[in-house]
Amino acid sequence: MSDGMMSKAATMEIPISSNGDTGSLPEDDSLEQDLQQVMVSGPNLNETSIVSGGYGGTAEGIIPTGAIKGSALHQPHASPAAGGEEIVRGIAVEKFDIVKKWGINTYKCTKQLISERFGRGSRTVDLELETQIELLRETKRKYECVLQLARALTNHFYSLVQTQHALGDAFADLSQKSPELQEEFGYNAETQKLLCKNGETLLGAVNFFVSSINTLVNKTMEDTLMTVKQYETARLEYDAYRTDLEELSMGPRDAGTLCRLDAAQSQFQSHKDKYEKLRADVAIKLKFLEENKIKVMHKQLLLFHNAISAYFAGNQQQLEQTLKQFNIKLKTPGAEKPSWLEEQ
């Protein structure tokens, strides 16, 4: 039976010491958050279907209520009142079964979680995969910092460009009203207008950089981390039902125990398959995410470097060439919305 229960090719059980101090576990102050995650995944009693599994359960094993209703409505020689009572009774039994399954599953998972945190249980750990997951979380935090700083740079530089634009207009106005300083005000106005134009070009490049980093962090990485959360939930369920099966295996072997043992073996196998599937999904997503991250950041860092360098070197031609190289089109004023003819 031990061969059927455990798959040690890629995972192993790490027993937790008496004080619960291990390097791979989260901090103890996250216990409350984990318990909340267990409890908030309760059943929706407005749904009229019986769902197997409860804590983070999927839609597998659904028995449509239509089968109950249909059987009640097509009973031979059944009065309308009796048929209505049968439907109500079927829905009540269905919802009770949902709550029962969710309660059992939540109890097992909560017991396993507390047992792990207080050093009285063991958890299944894929060391290589969990190292990659922790690295992803750390990378996401650092990229969020870069994104925040890039947005701050964009806001400050936008204010600078607006100030240069206003200053250029003021110089141009004074150039017309001050004949004795017309030339001096004139070339200062032209300089500010040129700086403003180059600044708007640089803003286009920086905005494109910010948009790409935002997509990478808040969509691509977040999507992978959602799968990671599903994997961690499946891991907790797997360990909970594994522990339950081990406890039953060490108990007495009477007729009742053997029946419960068979049921526990079936549930354990189901959660094991779910855990291994999600583990494979996470590994694939992490691989593709790393490849996509390198490709995106290679392009964006080159864009950022070339645009910043060209702007501060005063090379307007190189700055415009950088935008063309990365297919960045600047929005002209008043061109945000197409005309009514273009919309037809």
Written overview of the protein:
- The chain has 344 residues and is mainly alpha-helical.
- Among the domains are: 89-121; 127-329, Substrate Binding Domain Of Dnak, Chain:A, Domain 2, CATH 1.20.1270.60.
- It is built from nine helices and four strands, in the order αβαββααβααααα.
- The strands form two sheets. The chain has a two-stranded antiparallel sheet. A two-stranded antiparallel sheet has the order 2-3.
- The longest helix is centred in the middle third of the chain and has 68 residues, at 182-249.
- It is elongated, with a radius of gyration of 32 Å.
- Mean pLDDT is 78; it is low at 1-11, 13-27, 47-76 and 334-344.
- Keywords: Coiled coil, Golgi apparatus, Membrane, Phosphoprotein.
- This is ARFP2 protein.
- Residues 261-292 form a coiled coil.
- Residues 124-324 form the AH domain.
- It is found in: Golgi apparatus membrane; Golgi apparatus, trans-Golgi network.
Layout of helices and strands, plus pairs?
Elements: H1 2-5, E1 12-15, H2 31-40, E2 49-50, E3 63-64, H3 65-73, H4 80-117, E4 122-125, H5 127-177, H6 182-249, H7 255-312, H8 316-325, H9 340-343
Antiparallel strand pairs: 1-4, 2-3
Helix pairs in contact: 2-4, 3-4, 4-6, 5-6, 5-7, 6-7, 6-8, 7-8
